[in-house]
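LAB NOTEBOOK - FOLDING QUEUE
OPERATOR: T.R.
BATCH SIZE: 2
PURPOSE: Compare the predicted structure-token outputs for two unrelated chains run back to back under identical settings.
PRIORITY: normal
REVIEWER: second-year student, initials M.K.

ITEM 1
FIELD SEQUENCE / FIELD STRUCTURE:
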Amino acid sequence: MVKGEKKSRVNDIVTREYTVNLHKRLLGKQFKKRAPRAVSEVVKFAQKAMGTADVRIDQRLNKHLWSRGVKNVPVRVRVRLARKRNDDEDAKEKLYTMCTLVDVDTFKGVGTQVIQE
């Protein structure tokens, strides 16, 4: 690849699993803003990891982040990020990222995993 040339992500339809540490992202935040901030931090993480501006949060993931109330957000959350094609004709972005919750017993020893579909 030539310097300065950007690689297109249109053909890169990929799914990966990540562990997002919400504790370090919410440290020192007001209690009443922790759960909304956790949702936006997951969106920001997905944008950086997958390179898409359009990020959609699954309902189960949203309910999990809010499950212990507004101020007691889970310390870590395991998410599956799937970069997909946007079938809408009038969409600005060609790709979007879907964030879904992955249930795990422990976060020990699980790194980033690429999921083959």
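ITEM 2
FIELD SEQUENCE / FIELD STRUCTURE:
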Amino acid sequence: RGMVPHKTARGAASLDRLKCFEGIPHPFDRKKRMVIPAALKVLRLRPERKFCKLGDLSSLFGWKHKDLIERLEGQRKVKSEAFHKKKVATQRSQKATAKKVKVSAEDQKVLEAAGFA
């Protein structure tokens, strides 16, 4: 709020549009996470610079939900690992099944003409 002109209509509207979440909100917790190399701490900060994490800073100033978020994140990681193992097993079985399938010569020609082969 200190850096936004909250007393103007434009600033008030921007604060109304702002959304803050603890943890990962529902539609995004099922999405694949990606690493953005340009945002990595190792690449962005010089070695002698000091840094802190928002969760650590918040808990120092009275935020009471750090333990809850850590517990929920642990549960999410367990579920995510189980989902990943199941997904990999399904992909392996699909590849094995695809190798076992025999395609006739005329069907192979049709597939090659369509761009599959």
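REVIEWER COMMENT (ITEM 2): Residues 66-100 form the longest helix (35 residues).
FOLLOW-UP: none requested
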